[in-house]
Amino acid sequence: MKIVYGERDSILSSMAELREQATAVEKTAAEAVEAIVADVKARGDEAVREYTKRFDGVELESFRVGAEAVAQAVASVEADFLEALEAAKRNIVSYHEKQKRQGFMDGDGTGIIRGQLIRPLETVGVYVPGGTAAYPSSVLMNVLPAKIAGVGRIVMVTPPGKDGVNPYILAAAQIAGVDEIYSIGGAQAVAALAYGTASLPRVDKIVGPGNMYVALAKRAVFGAVNIDMIAGPSEIVVIADETGNPAYIAADLLSQAEHDVNASAIFITTSKELAEQVRAEVEQQLQALPRAEIAGASIEKNGLIVVVNSLEEAFDVSNEIAPEHLELHIPDPVMALGQIKHAGSIFLGPYAPEPLGDYFAGPNHVLPTSGTARFFSPLSVDDFVKKSSFLSYTREALEQVKNQITILAEKEGLSAHARAITIRFDK
């Protein structure tokens, strides 16, 4: 990993360059994605079958995964895996239940009633990756908040393999409470969910991570349906002072690097000695990883260690990056929370590694990437509800404010708006 010393602008320039490179690649892929989306919209199931054969090498007559296949999958996986899923489910549910909000209605006795209704979405589509790495944890993280919100119908799509759908993903779907499962993936699955086909229902919102083509497809269909966010490659920033454990930090950096060759792992520290130790640990630990080729390419391309003069400078740099994951390996990380402005999820102390959040603790692991933590939030129960406002005025209450309303309407040149008020008081 490259080490830079005291150069705040260097890391920000490196991150900007990395994100610009990703954008350039996206522009090339976007044309292919838009063509797939348009084709699925026009030809439905026929187009989906053709793309499934072309990209996944699988010919399917029916996309729907039946209850018997799900039951077989659950029976085939290890008991301790199921126990781990159930434990993770309990934590995710207990965390997200606290996010539920109630509607409200207020009235002060003057003939005015105002309020807000909160209603769950009717149908949600959940995309679950199934490529170089399958993620049963993503099933729980996307489905359980929707269930808590009260979504009536949850439809899951996931790419098929030569032997069908990954059994661990099916087991997670069973535990999470997915209503329908379809063995399709890629941009064609996103388009099918957005526009509906003879086999797949149209949904109101599409959530869940995927590769660049899935992300671009979600962007392409936005407007026809809602989406959670446009997720880019995974990223982590670790901040530590001289008390940091180099082995822990290196392991955490590699935990993100193994996701994807475009993932980024950045370490910011006030200690030159720790910087060198972490670099050596990364090189050593990398050799033992089954996904060493992917992690190594990520570290080589997007890994960086920055030595700064103070923790305040480290926080400043991190806030500019607005990382998906931020770890604080410092003596009193809770006290530093006030200095963190932009981060998807924050991990406090040496015993809160990022994978704890990925799998088990409860906070959602669907997080904003590519600097969008400046204005986006993690997936939550709020993503699966919609709000409607309501109001009621008596004649007397409206009469009290009619002149003020007509003044505002006339200043905007909207005389019909003003007339809709005054007509109620014509003699």
Total domains, how many?
3
From the N-terminal CA to the C-terminal CA, the straight-line distance is: 82 Å
Radius of gyration: 25 Å
Give unreliable regions as ranges: none
Main beta sheet: strand number and arrangement?
6 strands, parallel
Q: State the fourth-level CATH superfamily of the largest domain.
A: Nitrogenase molybdenum iron protein domain
In CATH terms, what is the fold-level topology of the largest domain? Rossmann fold
Tell me, briefly, the overall form: globular
Highlighted features:
globular; 5-stranded parallel β-sheet; 6-stranded parallel β-sheet; Rossmann fold; Histidinol_DH_CS; zinc ion binding; 427 residues; 15 helices
Task: Give a verbal description of the structure.
Helix 1 (8-43) packs parallel to helix 12, helix 3 crosses helix 6 (167-176) and helix 14 runs antiparallel to helix 15. The strands form three sheets. The protein has a six-stranded parallel sheet with strand order 1-11-10-9-12-13, sandwiched between helices. The protein has a five-stranded parallel sheet with strand order 6-5-4-7-8, with helices on both faces. Strands 2-3-14 form a three-stranded antiparallel sheet. Helix content is 47%, strand content 16%. It folds into three domains: 2-24 and 232-374, 3-Layer(aba) Sandwich (Rossmann fold), CATH 3.40.50; 44-229, Rossmann fold (3-Layer(aba) Sandwich); 395-425, no CATH class. It is globular. The chain starts with a strand and ends in a 5-residue tail after the last helix. Strand 2 (104-107) and strand 3 (112-120) form a beta hairpin. The chain is α/β, with parallel strands linked by helices and 427 residues long. The protein has helices at 8-43, 45-56, 67-76, 79-97, 136-149, 167-176, 186-195, 212-221, 246-257, 272-286, 292-302, 311-321, 354-359, 395-411, 415-422, and strands at 2-5, 104-107, 112-120, 123-127, 153-157, 180-182, 205-207, 226-227, 235-240, 264-269, 304-307, 325-329, 345-348, 385-393. Catalyzes the sequential NAD-dependent oxidations of L-histidinol to L-histidinaldehyde and then to L-histidine.
